[in-house]
Every structure is written in C-alpha cells, then in structure tokens.
Amino acid sequence: MADASVVVPSAYRNNITAVPDWLNKGDNAWQMVSAALVGMQGMPGLVILYAGLVKKKWALNSAFMALYAFAAIMPCWVLWAYKMSFGRRLLPFWGKAGLAVSQDFLIGQALLPSTHYIDEDANAETAAIQPWYPTATMVFFQYAFAAVTVILLAGSVLGRMSIKAWMVFVPLWITFSYSVGAFSVWGGGFLFQWGIMDYSGGYVVHLASGTAGFTAAYWVGPRLNVDRENFPPNNLLLALAGAVLNTHICAATSLLVWTCWDVLFFKKPSVIGAIQGMITGLVCITPGAGLVQGWAALVMGIASGTIPWYTMMSLSRKLPLLQKVDDTLGVFHTHAVAGTLGGALTGLFAHPSLSSLFLPIPHSKGAFYGGNGGVQFLKQLVGASFIIGWNIVATSIILLIVRVWIPLRMSEEELIVGDDAAHGEEAYALAGQGEREAYTQNGVEIEIPQV
C-alpha cells in the first residue's frame, strides 16, 4: 500500500507555524482571559445581581438596563471612545477620538499605563516597554472595564429611570465622562504624568460610577415612596450567583467585617450585607491590587468593611443630602466611598519596589514607607477630587440635555406597575401552570384562561 503521507515543503511549514516576533501567545492568552473575567463581572454577573436584588416588578427592567449598557458600549468603544481613552492627546485630560477597528497588529499609541510615557515636546506617546499582544486584545480588555463602569452606574437609578433616556445616556456618558477619567489616569493624561496610582480601576471605574450614579439619582429623582420604603429583593439566591465570590484577602476580610458589624448592631448576619461587604473589599483593593503587600490588603479589607458600612447604615440616615437622593442599590457607598478609600490607602501603603514597576516615575511610594511618601497620599486625594468633580459636572450636563427631549423618569403608570408597563413583559410567570394571569397587548390587558 502506498504511503499516504504528504510531504510539506519546509518554507511553507515555517510560514504556517511561525509566531511573529512581536507576539507572545502566552501574554496574549492571559490578557484575553483577563478581559473575559472582567467582562463576566458585568455580563452575566451584574445583570443577574441586579435582577435578584430589586423588587419583583423591576427584575426584568433592571437586568435589561445592565444588558443594554454592556452591548451599547462596544460600538462606541471601537468607533471613537477607546482612542479617546488610550490614544493621542488632545488636551491634558482628553484623548483624540478615532477608530480602533483597524488592521493594526501591534499596540502602537495605545498602551497600558505601565508601558508608556508621554513625550511632552512631541505631544505623542512613546513606548517604554512594548507589550507582546495585538491592539485588538487591548481594545477588548479595556472595553470590559468601560462596560462594567456604566453597569455599576445603573445601580443608582434602578426602579424609575426611563429606559429610553438610559439608552441615550449610555453612549453620551462613556464619551464625555468615562473617557476623560480613563485618559487622565490610565491613558497618559495629566494625572498619570503626575504619578496618580490606580492599578485596576478604583478611580477610573468605581469612584467614577459611584459619583456619576449618585448625581444621576439626584436628577432622575426618587422611586415611589412605597418602593423606597419597601424594596425587598425578589431572589437572594440569584443575587448571590451574580456576586462574583472570591477569596482575595481584602474582599474576604471586608465581607467578614461588614457581616460582623451587622451582627453587632442589628443582631443578625445579612446576606445582602455580606454581598455589599465583598463588593466594597473588591472596590477598595483595585487601586492598589498590584502595589501593596498582603498585610496592607488585610488592613484595607478591615477599612472597606467598616467605613462604607458606616456611611451606608448610619451616616446616610443623618445627612439630609444622602436622605434626599435615592441611590437604589447604594452605589455611592459601595463604589464612590470604597473607591476613594482604596485610592487614599494606596497612597499610604504602596510599596516602593512595586510602585517602580507600575509607574515610570521614580521614587513613587506610599506614606507608610517614609521619605516623600506623604506626597503620594496627597496626590491620591487630588486625583480623587478631579474624578469626582468631572463626573458630577459631566453627568449633570448630559442628563439636563437628554431631558429636553426625553423624560428622565418613567410615567406614573410605569412606576406603579413595573416591568409589564415599561416593557410589556415580566421576569417571572408565576400564575397557573407557569403562565401569567394576564398580559398586555397594544396597551390592552388580555386575560389568560386558567387550566
């Protein structure tokens, strides 16, 4: 029998198996996995977390707001917002818009903050360390952070914001608010040049979403009194599934500390409280995740399980502004407060050796390590102030413009009925044999016969 094997010329064999000099398959694979894990926090993580934490009549609407944001960010990101966040400088706090959907294979002008610096004279970014993966990988990785930020913001306005207004708000906010913070802190803008430390989003993601969410909640207005006073979660098991549980030092410590405070003051451990504590721990550690040592992460976990708990469970009942603004899921406390806390503590505990790996700015370190470390702590506070101020102003302007054409709030009927009035659909079919008792068709309620 003749040999059926095929002899492949060596030149052709090399062409189909060789890896380009600039590509490291391991680096690229890990970056893609990391992007997927971040993205999963938003979809399905936050989508089903919101669906479970809200009142039954808002389960579908809340999940859909999160899902819409996750999808809507992608075209905005690749068409203009990515370049505004990680492209060439237009202003010290703003990048030039441009397409990220191209045939580029190397990361040229868009690099991780730890891999580039700005040549002020040339007004262009200069690579310090060339990453070993394609531009497309970086675009996807940063998209996941942008999408999660907007979804977190949604948590402040669940249960009353018009879905049409939300659909317009999302692309405007990612363009005029998120991209400014991302470029300023991560993309080579003035805060990065100044040495602000935000390893993985304490400022860019969490402080921005918490501040913008609280601002949006002010302009949209509160829920109905009956909803605000009685807003039980419809499915805590679903909410637990949506909460991305892990054993990281800060997150685990924060969860335990928050639970202990609940037991101490309210005599019972709360599942919702445990979820909140885990979230504040994750938020608090993000600015210093790669910059602090394990003992510092433990201290940060204790702080993040205590201070946001106090602002949410005690201070919010005393301060008139916090009482007036209806922040549905307490995003201000779990993200804005915890994000600011994490940034400040990073300014205290950032290790000199780890800081030098993160920033091309020499002698960066936390105040705990003496010398000029106190300067870093003050820088962190100034950086937080910029993110807070910009998000208040930008979010307010966007919503004031949107409401000229689209009401920010749902109608009175929609607020009373919930999902069925807003979407003509419900999250759960509980009556009869898994069917609803009635459904809405063209505004007319039609009864379903029970079998």
Mind sketching the topology for me?
Layout: H1 10-17, H2 25-53, H3 59-86, E1 89-91, E2 94-95, E3 116-119, E4 124-127, H4 135-154, H5 163-185, H6 190-194, H7 202-220, H8 225-229, H9 236-242, H10 249-266, H11 271-285, H12 294-304, H13 307-313, H14 320-324, H15 331-349, H16 352-358, H17 373-405, H18 412-417, H19 419-423, E5 438-441, E6 444-447
Helix pairs in contact: 2-3, 2-4, 2-9, 3-4, 3-5, 4-7, 5-7, 5-17, 7-15, 7-17, 10-11, 10-12, 11-12, 11-15, 12-15, 13-15, 15-17
Q: Please, could you describe this protein's structure?
A:
With 451 residues, the chain is mainly alpha-helical. It has a single domain, classed as Ammonium transporter AmtB like domains (Ammonium transporter fold). A two-stranded antiparallel sheet has the order 1-2. Strands 3-4 form a two-stranded antiparallel sheet. Strands 5-6 form a two-stranded antiparallel ribbon. A hairpin with a 2-residue loop joins strand 5 and strand 6. Helix 3 packs across helix 4 and helix 7 packs antiparallel against helix 15. The protein is globular, with a radius of gyration of 24 Å.
Please report the number of helical segments. 19
What portion of residues belong to β-strands? Answer: under 5%
Instruction: Please list the strands of the largest sheet in the order they lie side by side.
Output: 1-2
CATH superfamily: Ammonium transporter AmtB like domains
Order of helices and strands: HHHEEEEHHHHHHHHHHHHHHHHEE
> Could you name the ranges where pLDDT drops below 50 across 5 or more consecutive residues?
1-6, 105-129, 432-436
